[in-house]
Design a protein that fits this description.
Strand order of the largest sheet: 14-21-20-16-17-18-19-15
Structural class: alpha+beta
Low-confidence stretches: none
Number of domains: 3
Distance between the termini: 60 Å
Helix content: 25-40%
Strand content: 25-35%
CATH superfamily of the largest domain: ATP-grasp fold, A domain
Number of helices: 12
Radius of gyration: 21 Å
Largest sheet: 8 strands, mixed
Mean pLDDT: 88
CATH architecture of the largest domain: 2-Layer Sandwich
CATH topology of the largest domain: Dna Ligase, domain 1
């Protein structure tokens, strides 16, 4: 039921946990922890008859509610307590590791629940149950639907849960290792904990470490950061003087790229890697195959050639599409989105994934090309342009716009 993270394997603990176990066995720096295996999930749902929510049912989210309403069994709580005691009962991160997650075909990036700053066996048990239930959240169901998988319960739809020591990072980020050693490693970084970068709630610094070791960087205006305060996560303003300061230097970017090469060698292919720096030490939080290639960065010459009325941002997902701009500032606007609309939003939270089943393209005001939403857009071949300043006020709701996800441009029909 409880598996040490060092021993985790994909067939019993899911792709995310299996990858972390492989990295630990290779001697790479992964925070210690354990996994609540598939067996525990299967035992918890054995008599819940989740199959009744599949087929013709319009209420697949009912499976989530049924799991959330079931108390975690005493035997699981006892096992969690013992495993936490062995760690020293620190604050922990509790993260999903589903079957079919973090594969070469589908990342399921951000589609299942993760919890940071969890402390105490009771809260950890609640977080584990919420991870189980997130198999049937609207966003997970929507993601599987776009990917062509059945959204309802099935024999291969199971969830393990990773419990790891919480890292209070000074800097966190994501990197993509290249498919060709002569290509560049792409790195994004921001202050504080990683959800700011992967969730797209901040525009991160961007670094490219070329095959010859040269580093180029674009430093962003990083206005907020996420940190742990006790058992709470808090969003804080970044001090003005630090907003436009680089989060890492070129030497650190090079070291990250070298670490990425080691990780890619373990798995035999390019990897999407989440990392964090604590007290000067770099840790690996996640590694999974890159599921869709990044668009090439826009060249300075092409960016300078666009008309004044054309908005520019970061190329996020290849493709060109024309459609109706739909300004979406939050869940209250979801019902207004129609098939073929182009989402124009401050950022795209992973909970917005169901909109990607009908949207033709995405424009955001903040966020990076390695964020979860950008990854999902690329997987589903939806053009995306990211980090367009003030896009929700500069574009009008209902206007016809054309977005080019390869050049990072957004043009209104009357421009």
């Amino acid at each position: 039921m409880i598996v040490p993270l060092m021993e985790a394997a994909t067939d019993t603990c899911g792709g995310k946990a299996g990858a972390l176990g492989a990295l630990l066995r290779a001697g790479l720096p992964v925070p210690d922890g354990f996994v609540v295996s598939f067996a525990a999930y299967l035992a918890a749902v054995r008599d819940l008859d989740l199959a009744r929510f599949a087929g013709e049912s319009d209420d697949l989210d009912g499976a989530r509610r049924v799991i959330e309403a079931r108390p975690v069994h005493a035997s699981v709580i006892d096992a969690l307590g013992r495993a936490l005691d062995e760690l020293g009962d620190p604050p922990v991160a509790v993260r999903s590791s589903a079957a079919g997650e973090d594969t070469g075909q589908a990342s399921a990036a951000g589609q299942h629940e993760s919890f940071l700053a969890v402390h105490g066996v009771g809260d950890v048990a609640d977080a584990v149950r919420s991870c189980w239930a997130s198999l049937f959240s609207p966003r997970a169901i929507g993601y599987r639907g776009v990917a062509g998988r059945d959204g309802g319960p099935s024999d291969d739809l199971v969830m393990a849960v990773i419990v790891q020591r919480q890292l209070d990072a000074e800097v966190s980020g994501v990197m993509f290792t290249p498919a060709d050693p002569d290509d560049a490693t792409e790195i994004e970084a921001s202050w504080g904990l990683g959800p700011s970068v992967v969730g797209g709630t901040v525009t991160p610094d961007a670094y490219r470490v070329a095959g010859d070791g040269s580093v180029t960087r674009t430093v962003a205006d990083k206005r907020t950061r996420l940190d742990r305060r006790g058992s709470q996560l808090v969003v804080r303003d970044v001090p003005t003087g630090a907003r436009d300061q680089p989060t890492i230097d070129d030497a650190t970017a090079t070291q990250l790229a070298e670490l990425g090469e080691e990780i890619a060698a373990v798995f035999g292919g390019p990897q999407d890697i989440e990392w964090a720096i604590v007290d000067g030490r770099t840790w690996v939080l996640q590694a999974r195959p890159v599921t869709a290639a990044l668009p090439p960065p826009a060249s300075p010459s092409s960016a300078s050639d666009v008309p004044d009325a054309t908005l520019t941002g970061t190329p996020g997902s290849r493709g060109t599409v024309t459609g109706t701009a739909r300004i979406v500032r939050g869940p209250g606007d979801f019902a207004r989105v129609q098939p073929g609309d182009i989402l124009v939003c401050p950022f795209t939270d992973p909970a917005w994934t169901p909109l990607l089943r009908i949207a033709a393209g995405v424009v955001t005001e903040i966020g990076g090309v390695l964020s979860h939403a950008a990854i999902v857009a690329r997987e589903h071949a939806i053009p995306a342009v990211l980090g367009v300043p003030n896009a929700t006020s500069r574009l009008h709701d209902g206007a016809i716009v054309t977005i080019d996800g390869a050049t990072g441009t957004v043009t209104a029909a009357n421009a």
